[in-house]
Amino acid sequence: MKALRFTQHGDPGVLAIGDLPKLTPSADEAVVQVFAASINPSDVKNVEGRMSQTTLPRTPGRDYAGVVIEGPAAWLGAEVWGSGGDVGFTRDGTHAEQVVVPVASLRRKPANLTFEEASAIGVNFIAAWCGVVEAAQVQAGETIVIIGLGGVGGAAAQIAKRIGAKVVGVARGAAATSPYVDAMVDSQGPDVIERIRAVTNGGAAVVFDTVGGSMFETAIHMLKVGGRLVEISATDRREVTFNLADFYHNESRLIGVDTLKRDLVASAEMLEALRPGFEDGSYKAPSIAQIFALEDAQTAYRAMAAGTNGRVVLTPQTKRT
């Protein structure tokens, strides 16, 4: 069984294809033949050594889509998808021809998604679900401001819109358009907070900040009384400040979300909750920019590290016709 491996941290040059022994699952595990596995920024960080929990040697990769080839009879031949905050870090990941996963984490992929599309859902939509549904508990009729409309922000907009919330996007230049966003505000504008307060009638019930760091001080002033600020990243700055008196007088709430705390089984529950939205067309799979064979993984990782616009996907196995 071929798998992408790294025995030391560094740039994508440390990645190599290894021949591993046949996988031997336990009674509560299954083997999935991986037809597609996307590369996430966290996978690149993992190889670089920026994930302290990772143990070496390791096969990276969090997201996958494929077919069950060994496990309970009821699952054999099933087309499945998955993701997890443990896989690729403390257990071997999905950038391989096959992966061992807990039977409890198996979930059937939406039939209307290709393997490549299904493999590109995981981390982004799980982070969005954690922020919008679990942490912020967004309700129909509320207004949510989403800072950054990349992979996670775009997924969050779709989830919030399906709930019935009003969605305001904040992005550089505010040129982005989306059927899931009701209004856009330029993050670099001198009056960004005033603009947000205008389009939200005094402040947002929820601000979902996918950027963090330099946007934190701005984000916290976008909240209405009792508003919730969800943070998932510290992209360019780890330490921030805010006026504590203003914070408690506004009865604001600050919530952190870390998807690495959701293992394969916990992530599976979120993917199952997301399934109806993909099946009825409410959610759209992200665009796939490039597809690479497993043998070209170094090039694929470099493309992701360079900031490719769209998803980068590995195809370890040739999918079935």
UniProtKB/TrEMBL annotation:
GO terms for molecular function: oxidoreductase activity. It holds the Pfam family ADH_N. It comes from the Bacteria. The keyword NADP applies. Keywords: NADP. The keyword Isomerase does not apply. This is Alcohol dehydrogenase.
